[in-house]
Amino acid sequence: MGSVAVLAALVAGASEAVAAAPAPGPRPSGGSYGGAATPGARLTLTYMAEAGYAAAVKLTCDPDGGAHPKAAQACATLLTAGADPEKIKPAHVMCMMIYAPITAEITGVWRGAPVQWTHTYGNKCEMTRATGVLFAF
After folding, report:
1. Per-domain residue ranges for the chain?
2. Residue 125 and residue 36: Cα distance in Å, rounded?
3. Please, what sign has the CA dihedral across residues 9, 11, 14, 16?
């Protein structure tokens, strides 16, 4: 088989593999996280306040673990939100209107897809109200 024929066969095989790739997002059936082709997560959650304090924790899902003190709840929250903290329903909590900026960040891999999320809140209470247990460490 000539080099052009080999190249054509490789390209055809790659095209079939891409066409057969599952769409991103939640998938039904099996497993505690929706039976994804690549289950689980390996994430680093951090927050840093302009006042000078910071915290970071590792979170794994499926199985739930890492150093996060509420790993199972954090993984369930991310699953419900499709790993997008912007989709978390904020808690009905009142926060003081004191400006003390704090930046939350999530990096890593969620079900095979890279995650890079950053958001700055007016204060820690606003961050907790918006993200639930994700940054409760």
Report:
1. 28-135
2. 33
3. negative
- Tell the residue number behind the tokens 């926060």, with chain if given: 95
Residue 47 β-bridge partners = 55, 104
Q: Which two tokens stand for residue 118?
A: 């950053």
Quick: pLDDT tens for 52-98: 999 999 999 999 999 999 999 999 999 999 999 999 999 999 999 99
Token pair in block for residue 95: 């926060």
SS3 135: helix
CATH of 28-135, one of 3.40.630.10, 3.30.350.10, 3.40.30.10, 3.40.50.2300: 3.30.350.10
Q: How far apart are CA 137 and CA 117, in angstroms?
A: 18
* pTM metric for this prediction: 0.70
In one-letter notation, the amino acid at residue 31 is G
pLDDT digits (tens, 9 = 90+) for 4-42: 343 333 334 433 433 443 444 333 333 344 444 467 899
